[in-house]
């Protein structure tokens, strides 16, 4: 009898969780399908050339026809994104720690970081190609200069928003600046840091594609450029679709990591 009662109590909870899960992504799926339907109908009705705007069905055909090439390019770009993202997070955290720990160095370094962030990153791509060649290094460098800033800024915001009374308490018991940094400031900054990594994840995708535009022999950016020279607009859209999928995948991977590392952090709610 008790087992039956537990089962009866758990079933409404499972139904409620399933309803909440489907309610969160179902509107997006409906909007996506409606957009595809309108797009396909508009191309057919107005006889728009595939050279200008291909129909979704033509993009799907190109995706299937070039599946092997596109998957190889996707793996190359995904590797660049992952490596560049990890380097960006490490460098961004290191810069934030240095700025907070060493006050005099932080006052000198922070304005330079902000100034460097205002440099057009696209203009750096050919310079990195000149310095590092056509291999992996220029892509990683470009991802780094694009994606490290939100990590640094988010972590700084978290570390500098610690309650002053808590800092005074730590000082009163003789804690060193390094102890305060790693025992108080860093744990307090984790929700902000994880939010910054989600931004960095999406920017890393942009950095990888820009780097491949500047000079590459493989990757989705290379496929887009090559398809453009061949006037194969459907293949361009197919590659862009895969770029978008990569961006979504890396963003939600960062969000899953956030839920693991800082489960107490507030989450976006549509309610």
TrEMBL record:
Domain ABC transmembrane type-1 span(s) in chain numbering: 70-254
Highest taxon in the source lineage: Bacteria
Protein localization: Cell membrane
A Pfam short name: BPD_transp_1
Keywords in alphabetical order: Cell membrane, Membrane, Transmembrane, Transmembrane helix, Transport
Lipid bilayer topology: Multi-pass membrane protein
Residues annotated as transmembrane: 20-39, 81-100, 112-134, 140-159, 193-214, 234-254
Family: Belongs to the binding-protein-dependent transport system permease family.
Name of this protein: ABC transporter permease
Organism annotation: Mesorhizobium newzealandense
Taxon lineage: Bacteria, Pseudomonadati, Pseudomonadota, Alphaproteobacteria, Hyphomicrobiales
């Amino acid at each position: 009898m008790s087992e039956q009662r537990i089962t009866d109590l758990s079933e409404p909870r499972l139904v409620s969780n399933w309803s909440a899960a489907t309610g969160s992504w179902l509107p997006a799926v409906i909007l996506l399908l409606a957009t595809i339907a309108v797009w396909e109908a508009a191309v057919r009705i107005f006889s728009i050339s595939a050279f200008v705007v291909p129909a979704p069905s033509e993009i799907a055909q190109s995706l299937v026809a070039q599946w092997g090439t596109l998957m190889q390019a996707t793996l190359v770009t995904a590797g660049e994104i992952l490596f560049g993202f990890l380097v960006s997070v490490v460098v961004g955290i290191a810069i934030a720690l240095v700025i907070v720990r060493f006050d005099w160095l932080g006052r000198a370094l922070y304005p330079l970081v902000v100034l460097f962030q205002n440099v057009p990153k696209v203009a750096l791509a050919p310079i990195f190609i000149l310095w590092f060649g056509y291999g992996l290094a220029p892509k990683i460098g470009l991802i780094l200069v694009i994606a490290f800033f939100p990590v640094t800024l988010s972590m700084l915001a978290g570390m500098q928003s610690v309650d002053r009374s808590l800092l005074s308490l730590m000082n009163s018991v003789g804690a060193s600046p390094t102890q305060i940094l790693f025992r108080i400031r860093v744990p307090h900054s984790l929700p902000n840091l994880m939010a910054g990594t989600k931004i960095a994840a999406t920017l890393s995708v942009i950095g990888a594609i820009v780097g491949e535009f500047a000079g590459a022999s493989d990757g989705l950016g290379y496929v887009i450029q090559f398809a453009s020279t061949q006037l194969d607009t459907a293949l361009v859209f197919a590659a862009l679709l895969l770029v978008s999928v990569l961006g979504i995948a890396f963003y939600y991977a960062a969000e899953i990591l956030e839920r693991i590392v800082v489960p107490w952090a507030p989450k976006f709610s549509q309610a």
